[in-house]
Amino acid sequence: MTTKLNLVVAACNDWGIGKDGQLPWRLKKDMEFFKKMTTQTDNPDKKNVVIMGRKTWNSIPEKFRPLPKRINIILSKTMSHAPTGAYLAGSLEEAISMVTDKGDLADKVEGVHIIGGSSVYKAAMESDFPCRIYLTRVLADFDCDTFLPQIDSNVFEKIDNCKEVPKGTVTENDIDFVFEVYDKIPGHNTIEEPNAA
Fold it and tell me: Quick one: which pathway (predicted)?
């Protein structure tokens, strides 16, 4: 069975996802959705994997690391050893091989979730793996220095009526946001470069 990558990400109007290693917004309902998507499993004996880059790992407050009830894998070419409670991989492919039928974690894993940052999302979107993007689209402008690669409609199709995501516009702290889902169209593995202008 081919591993499916689930990207969980929030982006504002210009596809910005972060500033100085932090989220530019605080949206409790988005955080609740993130936690539910990345922790919930059909099999109570299995856990989901969250794959992230080193900067994303460092952006998580220390008391919350590793993210509980999930298998944490950090992608890094510079870290010499894995932090306590987490695993280390040199590439997305290596991380996925750790959790598929070839790896030590295979029988413990249900879903594979990509949680940032920009280069890890890009690697997942450009990979040959089936890919689903759970996007919290923040309908506002924020000053960002990190961006999600734009979702190319020739490569990804929007899925309407996905039961996993809340419907309609949500408002919190005077910020409107909506939950969207995109699936990679089989046979596509190229994306456009983001517009970080």
Answer: Cofactor biosynthesis; tetrahydrofolate biosynthesis; 5,6,7,8-tetrahydrofolate from 7,8-dihydrofolate: step 1/1
Give the model confidence (pLDDT) of 126-151 as tens digits.
999 999 999 999 999 999 999 999 99
Confidence of residue 189 (pLDDT cuts 50, 70, 90): low
Taking the whole predicted model, whether its pTM rises above 0.90 is answered as yes
In CATH terms, 5-184 corresponds, of 1.20.1290.10, 1.10.150.120, 3.30.470.20, 3.40.430.10, to: 3.40.430.10
What is the residue-wise DSSP string for 161-191?
S-TTS--S-EEETTEEEEEEEEEEPTT----
Provide the residue ranges of all domains of the chain, joining segments of one domain with +. Answer: 5-184
Question: Which residue do the tokens 């990190």 mark?
Answer: 146
Q: Is residue 116 pLDDT above 80, yes or no? A: yes
Cis peptide before 61 (omega within 30 of 0): no
